[in-house]
Amino acid sequence: MALNYVLIGRRVKEIREQKFMTQVELAEHCRTTAQYLSQIEHGKKQPSLQTLVGIAETLEISIDELLGGNQVRNRKIYQNELGQLLEDCSSYEKRVIYELIKDTKRILRVNRTLLEREIDYY
Fold it and tell me: Fewest Cβ atoms closer than 10 Å to its Cβ: which of 16, 110, 112, 120?
């Protein structure tokens, strides 16, 4: 299985921003450059395991959290993440999100053949 470095980069950026860190700050802690970190965040560079561990440690997350989404067939990961996303939502927000997911699932299944031709999955 090939890793989706674009997804990893997005997660790095998302978590870094949640922690109110700049690229420069994260790069300094990981002993790399802000330019290299930017390339990681945009999926243009494939960081070493050592770099990924450094990023995860600095962001105070597990490697599992950083690589989450790369195991496409692991339902538990998505169920846990959905639960976390909904934790701080109001009842109204949960209902809207539920309706969006339900409709999205229906649309995906109705258009599956068309979408599979158009989208190169990762």
Answer: 120
Q: What is the CA radius of gyration of the chain?
A: 17
CA 22 to chain centre: 18
Question: b vs e for 22-37, b when ≥16 Cβ sit within 10 Å of the residue's Cβ?
Answer: ebeebbeebebeeebb
Residues 54-113: tens digit of each pLDDT? 999 999 998 888 887 665 556 666 777 788 889 999 999 999 999 999 999 998 888 877
Sequence-distant (6+) residues with CB within 8 A of 56 are: 62, 63, 65, 66
Position 68, amino acid:
G
How far, in Å, CA of 91 to CA of 38, rounded? 37
Indicate the pTM of the whole model: 0.61
* Total residue length of the chain: 122
Decide: 68 and 11 in contact? Cβ < 8 Å.
yes
Concatenated DSSP letters of 62-94 = -HHHHHTTS-TT-HHHHHHHHHHHHTT--HHHH
